[in-house]
Amino acid sequence: MLQKIVILDFGSQYTQLIARRVREVGVFSEIVPCTIDLPKLMAMNPSGIILSGGPSSVYDEHAPRLDPEILTLKRADGTKMPVLGICYGMMAMCLNEGGVVARADHREFGRARLIVDRTEDLFAGIQDSSTVWMSHGDRVTELPPDYEIIGHSENAPVAAVRSKNLSHYGVQFHPEVVHTDDGRLILENFTHRICGCSGDWSAASFIDEKIDEIRKTVGDAHVVLGLSGGVDSSVAAVLLHKAIGDQLSCVFVNNGLLRKGEWEQVQKTFRDHFHIRLKAVDACDLFLERLSGVVDPEEKRKIIGNTFVEVFDQATDDLVLELGHRPKFLAQGTLYPDVIESVSFKGPSVTIKSHHNVGGLPKDMKLEVLEPFRELFKDEVREIGRLLEIPSAILNRHPFPGPGLGIRIIGEIHKEDLDILREADAIFIDELREQDLYHEVWQAFAVLLPVRTVGVMGDERTYENVCALRAVTSVDGMTADWARLPHEFLAHVSARIVNEVRGINRIVYDIGSKPPATIEWE
């Protein structure tokens, strides 16, 4: 049975990092809202629970609350449920258990020196002191009954605690961030020593488990996959083909929003290399007609998602004639960051943005959705792809959004603007490859802005488009920093685009990081 750590999200910007760090020590983890119903939580059969940090004070009127029943839970084998509270999670736990939380006299933000008072259990292997990352304005001023201090700092007398009778632990700092020197060891101690996890989860084990799950779910039914040629859908296609063989059909839709040469390249790759049944549907005119006059990015995404499903439904109708029966499942390459960003514990009002794979599908869709990578991060999918021996040319491609170039043209979409953007984007990517910079960045692309500026070309006045270049470094897309590309390289790319792409006379470079910006512009 899969051992799992469940992370209750109280709104921290670092919650996804907790999940990543737990997986890095060989234990599967999953994030759920802190408002989850207890029966649903227990149905997940957790080996332990982590309470994330959060931006609120526990005394704020609208602060998320910790269900006190969570602190009384037992595991499936009858043993006490281990709980680790991080920052806000620790204060919520202590408050529920009878402690006192108050505003700190001295707030702590950034690096601090943790003095370790007890070097066993959570802090096993850590001697005397360690550098940790603090981010809090409240602090525990009175311990709950039967709790004891296991670590303190100069400004936080209660920096880490544990219950003497329960498997409950709390830390005021953030072990999940890289600035905490022994953070990985602390999480490993919690998952392995305290929760008793074996640490044997890996991409390889995921493949075996997922293939078995797919076969049980699908049975003798047929699956159609929305193929884009990107990493996620490509790895999903190969995994599904390995699991169910000819019960899989891939449908590749040309929505008019693809990159240069992608329509031809994807068909050749999957027909010639993978020998997977592929149905290619050119629906450019339909998508562009539906998008005509649309400016709002959320509306664009929904139109693209809904139209995609309509085209897919027609493609499956056509497959009925070829197969003799109707496919039952629609497979997608939805990733965990898509799910996390599209669902908030506070509800849809604080959703960052809906994603094509998780927010744009109509309720009356005829197919059941199958998402084999819904619980994985991008680098984990790439590792699975390597184990499945997918060529690096596909596996190491930069991510490409489901709505494609539709969210890289800001505002209304016109065919001529798509043609301009395709050429500019191709030059940028080609030069990154040529200068051995492509794999130094996580994602790179061009954006066409709804701005025209005056320029001079050949002693003549021009009034043409502004193109923005975007390149970021990241691990999984949940956070990202703008890539420090060489100035000489940017100057060369800028000159090529302006000289070779008619319709662009000015280039800008995006230096926004995530957060506060998102990677895509829309």
Concise structural overview:
The protein is α/β, with parallel strands linked by helices and 522 residues long.
Structural features, described:
- By secondary structure, the protein is an alpha/beta fold.
- It has 3 domains: 4-194, Rossmann fold; 203-395, HUPs (Rossmann fold), CATH 3.40.50.620; 413-509, GMP Synthetase, Chain A, domain 3.
- The chain is built from 15 helices and 18 strands.
- The chain has helices spanning 15-24, 38-43, 88-96, 183-194, 203-218, 231-244, 262-273, 284-291, 297-323, 336-342, 356-359, 378-387, 392-395, 415-434, 487-500, and strands at 4-9, 28-33, 48-51, 83-86, 100-116, 129-142, 147-152, 160-163, 168-171, 223-226, 248-254, 278-282, 329-331, 368-370, 443-457, 460-473, 481-482, 504-509.
- The chain has a 9-stranded mixed β-sheet, sandwiched between helices.
- A hairpin with a 4-residue loop joins β8 and β9.
- α5 crosses α6 (231-244) and α6 (231-244) crosses α12.
- The longest helix has 27 residues, at 297-323.
